[in-house]
Amino acid sequence: MTGELINYNSLGVSCTADELHVVTSEDELRELVVRASATGVPLTVLGGGTNVVLHKRLRGLVIVLALKGLSARPGKSEEIRLTAAAGEVWHHLVRYSLGRGWYGLENLALIPGTVGAAPIQNIGAYGVELAERFVSLRAMDRRDASVREFDRAGCRFGYRDSLFKEDENSQETSSEVDRYIILDVTLSLSLQAHPVLSYPDIQRELAHLGHTRATPTQVAEAVVRVRRRKLPDPASCGNVGSFFKNPLVDEVFARELRCREPDLHVRPAGKRIVKLSAAQLIDRCGFKGAQRGPVGVWQRQPLVFVNLGMATGEDFLTLAEEVQQAVLDRFEVSLQIEPRVLGES
User: Fold this and answer.
1) Active-site residue (options: 10, 133, 338, 340)
2) Which end of the chain is less congested by CB atoms within 10 angstroms, N or C?
3) pLDDT bracket for residue 182 (50, 70, 90)
4) Is 0.90 topped by the overall pTM?
5) Is 242 a catalytic residue?
6) Pairing of strands 70-74, 79-85
7) Could you name the CATH architecture of 3-65?
8) Pairing verdict, β 295-297 and 305-307
């Protein structure tokens, strides 16, 4: 039975699935995976739909993964191992852990989406990446419906990247070669507070709130307040958060670029590699607050594209191409789209 996906993606774009299933058990998922594998029908899996741009049609089987469940067990000294099913809402997990005095996720508060989506792009914010808290995950192989466990090394985490965004053998990034469906994720949390306060936005917010020695809960509160000021609520204004990754460039190139643009923001990102601010590059090109028909660039954060009413996935991608070309022309820097692009026109 065909299904409309406008309520299953945070951009709020219309997309028709040839056959739509909301899956709440691993057995049900296994049956669909086996059927897709046996018949050669395309299989697409959505979580919260917060990191995808959908074209007008998705062929084959489309699964909305709604697996639920939370469990915890003691780990090493002062450690809790928390396992969450893929369909749990990420921000609810952050609140759940803080409410029980289990710390480490506070900087990742209010990131939209589900737990199952978090490892795929190795979510990160305000100085913390999922990989730093990650222990393992279970995933179902689309080829034979077998279940496999991955540790941190096996996930090949990188900046907004992981094994689950690429083919295991060719390492080509493509939505057509995704092999594994994440079932649940296990994280390592601490019974001791070790706040990460490296980002100026969070430091300023904590100072504004009068927190001189911030607790993890207060850090989460500051993160939520900052994010709500910068980012629109997808429930009222369709968006996927950051539309582009912050570009990684050679430090020699970055020094040359700063000779032309002295106040560009640069952060270390590895050996002889630095990270530029995609938002700043886009802002310098004059796109903050720009509108192109039914889509626009958020006036408070140029990394965010918003649905102004009845936009399509194609509308968002057209704006993205315009922004990419402008940044390339001015800075000689290529911007990479962060959300996955699925379906066909």
Assistant:
1) 338
2) N
3) very high
4) no
5) yes
6) antiparallel
7) 2-Layer Sandwich (3.30)
8) antiparallel
